[in-house]
Amino acid sequence: MSLTPLETLQQIFGYESFRGVQADIIGHVVEGGDALVLMPTGGGKSLCYQIPAIVREGVGIVISPLIALMQDQVDALLELGVRAAFLNSTQDRAEAHRVEQAYLSGQLDLLYVAPERLLTPRCMDLISQGRVALFAIDEAHCVSQWGHDFRPEYLGLSVLAERWPNVPRIALTATATETTRAEIASRLALESARHFVAGFDRPNICYRIIEKNEVRRQLLAFLQAEHAGDCGIVYALSRSRVEETAAFLSKNGIEALPYHAGLDAATRARHQARFLREDGLVMVATIAFGMGVNKPDVRFVAHIDLPKSVEGYYQETGRAGRDGLPATAWLAYGLQDVVRQRRMIDDSGGEPAYQRRLVAQLDAMLALCETISCRRKNLLAYFGQTIEPCGNCDTCLQPPVSWDGTVAAQKMLSAIYRLWRERGQRFGAGHIIDVLRGQSTERVRQYDHQSLSVFGVGADLSVAAWRGVLRQLLALSLVTVDLEGYGTLALTADSREVLKGERTLMFKRSAEAPRRPAGRRAGSAAAIVLPPDAQARFEVLRAWRSGVAQNHGVPAYVIFHDATLREIALAQPQSLEDLSGISGVGARKREAYGEEILSCVSV
Length: 603
Ligand code: ADP
Ligand code: ZN
What we know:
By secondary structure, the protein is α/β, with parallel strands linked by helices. It has 27 helices and 17 strands. Helix 2 (about 20-30) runs parallel beside helix 3 (about 45-55).
């Protein structure tokens, strides 16, 4: 008498109902269908294969690229009473043998394997000797050669379709543009699979993008004011910036650890484990960090450099607030980011088509930064989804003041044009702005630029305002950073329209001072205030949880999420039955911890 999917959700996972498309996906896979699932980070992908694996006969094989995280995933399932195990290179022979035997005798619900391991002849033989309930291909975008997480091992996975034509396969990813989806479907032989696209909105994340000036100070001020004591991730573009920023934060009283591909594997693993297990740590990382990290209480994701694409950005920011509680996505960017990234694309030496794609991705990212309408609307439009202005992003909370920038744009474009046309010269932003503002710098005198007709025509605007104009021109592709020069500026095919007065441009007024949504500590954990007596119970529960987690050698959230503890603290259950109604308390956990929880909240 096996459980239905809904019973499994309620009794094993302790959740009341399925979210969005989860029920359809699970129904389809339980019936033996193939599926390609697109759901945002934090949307609830794991249940989509875990429940069918439990419900269907046989063992669900989960292909996951992240050996370092398999242990935690398996621990979390074991806590729920689900029979799970993994096979990877961290195990000794005896241990691997035990897992293999458990697999062969059908004593597992789920088996996690890395793709390179799975594709060895030995492992394929082993798998074929047991009964497979399904194959789940997690982080399926790793198969995309042009994506940001390409893993060549993934290319071999199409063999599963040939070898096990009757076993359902479900591929899951949070990366969702049309092109990526098509690429995944074709490379994994999932063309005839049903595609499920979930809503990509993550309403609890507050999106904010600011202009960069002194980025470390800005970051520090943001963290101190709004996320003191919170756990979060800071993304930077290079290893050296990661190191410097982690050191800077630590020096200023915020405990921060670096993570990037230049650190040895042991250090990376140690930092990751500390991040998962300790409260309130900040991880400063390159994008090498984060995939598969499903820590639910990450309260902020901050980017101190411009991400390369909206796809990547959305995936990274999605790591905030998986528990559904308020969280912040904060990004600081400036002109220099655009120049640097254009140059990096140029230096990457790829095919022209590939480079064009990178430039297009960067432009979309820039457009998001410079938008004067709702950030979330803009983000979701990128994934083909339409929403009303969200009310939980900086542009909604504090609508930017816009101004008619047509004349300013014409001045800037003509300065760039004249220097090139009349003098055959190209310059970067700093010098162009000096010319516009009529500054008699050494370089201006050296090139005799006082004699240009555009010299001093823009004295009415500040340097910051001009930089704002230029960023917006870049975002609109009306100016481009010359790929051959050293970040010099050039006109584009569309610039002419503006110069001829055929196009009006509305710009966002540059903020002179850093600002944040007035009177709101948007994403802070402290913003969700509990009444004092419930808060006291919550603290008792947290202390109890950390003891249990330590005894079991697992991260605290594997025992219970904060959201579950908050609900318990508020509801103050009197009996095991009361406890069953709380989201995140399944049968196994109620049995194992029910009495202890009741005594925690009865004081
Ligand atoms: P993803 O893998 O898509 O990033 P997860 O599978 O980690 O997301 O799920 C995100 C969070 O949402 C997890 O903490 C999970 O327990 C929770 N969750 C998923 N589905 C449900 C549901 N139907 N009801 C309540 N919580 C859910
Ligand atoms: Zn909005």
